Amino acid sequence: MDEREPLKPDSEAQLSPDNPVTRHPRISPPKQDQPEPGLDAKLDPQADHGEKSYVGTGRLKGRKALVTGGDSGIGAAVAIAFSRECADVAIAYLPAEAEDARKIIGLIEAEGRVGIGLAGDLLDADYRNSLADDAAEKLGGLDILVNNAGKQVAIENLEDLDDEQILQTFQINILAMFTITRAALKHLPAGSSIINTTSVQAYDPSPTLLDYASTKAAINAFTKGLGVQLAPRGIRVNAVAPGPIWTPLQVSDGQPKDALPKFGHNVPLGRAGQPVELAPAYVFLASAESSYVIGETLNVNGGRQTP
Length: 307
Fold this sequence. Notes:
The protein is 32% helix and 12% strand. It is an alpha/beta fold and 307 residues long. The chain has a domain at 58-244 and 276-299: 3-Layer(aba) Sandwich (Rossmann fold). A seven-stranded parallel sheet has the order 3-2-1-4-5-6-7, with helices on both faces. The longest helix has 22 residues, at 163-184. The chain starts with 63 loop residues before the first strand and ends in a 7-residue tail after the last strand. The relative contact order is 0.18.
């Protein structure tokens, strides 16, 4: 990739809600490290999930959603947005992420919606198999599934990428989508929406993210094939492909530590994205406004070129 950086305003520049370059600060995160899975509560600088900025219009009134990885990052922004669009939301998260999860559940409940936390590990087959059933039971139904949870660990050389990490990355990122979606289908009526989180890495893989990028390419294929399969049943399947988004994934070995200060600076907009900037894409794909959209991958990446 071309490493030349366009001249863009930095975090001290005046923010402008109408200019995508300056809608959010151009962050230069300090070098930092968190053990996996990472906590939003300890992220420096803090990410914007739309806690104060996302305003809903009731587009998901009466809907019931399960969001995996809904405690922080993109999943948290989606959970907040869905609740402000009048949906009840269950979030799946690792027990180690309980602090972040409590905050998001509190924000969902503050909107007068039902907020459910489902703690567990997607490496646990029993948890994967029961997740959709538990969400449907506690929500009183299910008609939106967001497969968002992911594992990303940067490894410089293939010789150091061991089978254990490869298997875990594939289990969490793509195998879990098969398992959870399959179990959810008995609950999803016509009019339901399945949204998978893929990545710009599916098209432009970083050399340090071989296993992660491979799973994201698989998610694109899964989305398109399943979209065709389920369309006659009135269930739409689509995906969102984020670019560089500031989340705890990046500081829990998702990026080389030396790369953090310039994270996201090399996209055409000149800055990393914030989780809140992904939320409208998921709301669109979950709502009836996208009724003729099936098998689509919606790229939200600051201008990076994709097929």
